[in-house]
UniProtKB/TrEMBL annotation:
Signal peptide: none annotated. Residues 51-241 form the KANL3/Tex30 alpha/beta hydrolase-like domain. SUPFAM superfamilies: alpha/beta-Hydrolases. InterPro entries: AB_hydrolase_fold, KANL3/Tex30_Abhydrolase, NSL3/Tex30. PANTHER family: TESTIS DEVELOPMENT PROTEIN PRTD, TESTIS-EXPRESSED PROTEIN 30. This is KANL3/Tex30 alpha/beta hydrolase-like domain-containing protein. It comes from Syntrophus gentianae.
């Protein structure tokens, strides 16, 4: 059980400006362990629905995609929280065991709902690759009471191997889901994903990023700045939130 002695402070971005209110949070886990998080709050009117975003296996909460995603949501009035898993706090490359990943997700959720002061009545769980997969498994197992799920690149199968699908738990989920998928994603074959979605009973939406890989990077030959892709992800999410909730 996480203690409620969260530590926080305001911090500035690399250019010395604060585009909206950001608070760096320390969220305690069991024992002496803790994780870092960043709470991003809207400048003006704040909605009572917020989004938590977890990083993927090979990055952390400061990945440009996740920073832009959270900032974009806050600019639209949605409080946003992004956090690190314990192994990233320690500078390790190998992800924690599933139980530890789930404990971190649960602690971040508790902080967002009970300790952030954002006045949230609904929380959406989002994640890049592994972060989203863990959240969805927790929702399927009734361990995470989120009202919706957002997948910033779902790892449907190992790279190039369609024989080992990570789809069984998705059919047990009853809340709305938003999937972002790139056409060059080697961990999520689009035709296979579509087949999975067609068998799901929960409401879902799919946004396809043409030319995008697993992190939505596109070939330079397409002439589209990375920042434009990040903006598109945030704008689509805002549209989905407004239409769904």
């Amino acid at each position: 059980m996480a203690r409620k002695d969260y530590k926080m402070d305001l911090y500035k971005n690399m250019k010395g400006r604060i585009p909206m209110e950001r608070q760096r949070i320390t969220i305690p886990l069991s024992g002496e362990e803790s994780i870092s998080a960043v709470l991003t709050l809207p400048r003006n009117e704040t909605k009572n629905l917020g989004v938590i975003t977890a990083h993927g296996a090979g990055n952390d909460m400061e990945q440009a995609l996740l920073v832009a995603f959270s900032d974009g949501l806050a600019e639209a009035g949605y409080p946003a929280l992004r956090f690190n898993f314990p192994y990233k706090e320690k500078g390790l490359k190998a992800p924690d065991r599933p139980e530890k990943l789930e404990n971190a997700w649960a602690a971040a959720y508790r902080y967002f709902r009970e300790g952030s002061g954002a006045g949230l009545t609904r929380i959406i769980a989002a994640g890049k690759s592994m972060g989203g997969r863990v959240a969805s498994q927790m929702v399927a197992d009734k361990k995470l009471p989120a009202q919706g799920l957002i997948f910033l690149g779902y790892p449907l199968h190992p790279a190039g191997d369609l024989s080992k699908l990570r789809d069984a738990h998705l059919y047990q989920i009853g809340i709305p889901m938003l999937f972002f998928a790139g056409t060059r994603d080697t961990l999520c074959d689009l035709a296979t994903l579509q087949g999975v979605l067609d068998k799901m009973s929960a409401p879902w939406d799919l946004e396809i990023i043409e030319g995008g890989d697993h992190s939505f990077r596109i070939p330079k030959s397409m002439g589209i700045p990375e920042s434009d892709i990040h903006t598109r992800l945030a704008e689509k999410t805002v549209q989905w939130l407004e239409e769904t909730f």
